[in-house]
Amino acid sequence: MTELERIVQNIADNHSAEKSELVRILADDSINDFLFKTADAVRKKYVGDEVHLRGLIEFSNICKCSCKYCGLRKDNLNTNRYRMDVEEILFLAKKAKEYNYRTIVLQSGEDSFFSKDKMCKIIEGIKKMDFAITLSIGEKSFEEYEAYKSAGADRYLLRIETTDKNLYEKLHPKMSFENRKRCLFDLKKLGYETGTGCLVGLPGQTLDSLAGDILFFKELGADMIGLGPFIPNPETPLKNEKTGNLSLSIKVMALTRLLLPDINIPATTAMETLHPEGRILALQSGANVVMPNVTCEDCKQKYEIYPGKAGLNNTPEEYKKVITEKIKAIGRTISTGYGFHKKMF
Ligand code: SAM
Question: How far is ligand 1, taken at its centre, from the CA of residue 42, in Å?
Fold first, then answer.
């Protein structure tokens, strides 16, 4: 074993790491194969071979924020905005039932039209169809999170995006890093399965700050981690920046699996956007979840966070078929359960 392999093995055995060790691994690509295989083995040991499919509904692309990397930012005037009504959302959830998905992920920009009461009505409607529900609708007050939880929401995804406070505040005008963290700790306190994650390859981001992100996931006690490469959007201030690196993103994900061995980790769309087999590579390097898009054709095209999003050319039926075949081809199975986080320690 090389010294770096020993470090990786040690992290896999103890589920803890020094920041300097994470930086060394992130900096050296000669370790990649060993790291990916080790993360795959840890995934198999703790969460098994099942892949959980979660049906994603992107129900509004209207957003009050101005995140500098995101195509939904309010200052992007070159995008067609849409907002679904309650019936449309429930209709898509019903379709997701036909694909046998057991979780609905409701994602949107930060759209104030969806008041606390409106969101609760949607959550209750979906819950009646016997789904687990994940929300990904941004920063809210403790009271709002509490109301969604009482209405039936089970999980919440809110990426910290980066734990480098200065970088965070540069990229998120008028937003506060402290409030983002407050949201995540409130969600944990309320008993949500709490998901966070980061963007990999943001301009100005260092390996040191990525290592900090991984340690933050552990500190939070995250139940899910979704991360992916930054992909420049031509309609944003970061349009001329470099695209994030796929293999670095998978390394961050694999290290996360070593530190948090029993959590749920999606193979994300951004990974597949940079490489046609990006999701499969991720599933073989620590991931155990895929979130197929069940949004209707017209809205899916308009939910343009970044250009060329994977899956835009497939109908939900086609995507289900393609992803199922790919998952089976790598010797994995499709879960028939809700796919909750089963804590092992
Ligand atoms: N508004 C919600 C929130 O803030 O969590 C959910 C919607 S937001 C569009 C979902 C995620 O898209 C963000 O957490 C961010 O990481 C990702 N995203 C936005 N712009 C991106 C880009 N240019 N490249 C890759 N991912 C991006």
Answer: 28
Q: Whose CA is nearest to atom 26 of ligand 1?
A: 230
- Cβ(193)–Cβ(220) below 8 Å: no
Whether 159 lines ligand 1, by a CB cut-off of 6 Å, is yes
What's the rounded Cα separation, in Å, for the pair 328 and 335?
11
List of the chain residues with pLDDT < 50: none
- Closest ligand 1 atom to residue 231 Cα is 24
**CB distance 169 to 148 below 8 Å:** no
CA distance 138 to 169: 16
What is residue 150's predicted lDDT score, i.e. its pLDDT?
Answer: 98
Buried-state track 306-327, b at ≥16 Cβ within 10 A, e below 16 = beebbbbebebeebbeebbebb
pLDDT at 312: 92
pLDDT at 13: 98
pLDDT of residue 345: 74
Strand partners, 105: 56, 134
- How many Å apart are CA 215 and CA 211, to the nearest integer? 6
Please report where in the chains the tokens 């509490």 appear, as a residue: 146
For ligand 1, the distance from its centroid to the CA atom of residue 110, given in whole angstroms, is 11
Q: Give the torsion through C-alpha atoms of 260, 266, 267, 273, to 10 deg.
A: -130
Find, among 204, 222, 203, 55, the residue nearest to 132 by Cα: 55
Q: Which domains are assigned to the chain?
A: 3-332 (3.20.20.70)
Q: 266 is written with which tokens?
A: 């999606």
Ligand 1 centroid to residue 133 C-alpha, Å: 19
CA of 111 to the centre of ligand 1 (A): 14
Any atom of ligand 1 within 6 Å of the Cβ of 136:
yes
197 vs 195: CA distance, rounded Å: 7
- pTM to 2 decimals? 0.98
Residue nearest to atom 21 of ligand 1 (CA): 70
115 DSSP assignment: -
Cβ–Cβ under 8 Å, residues 68 and 175:
no
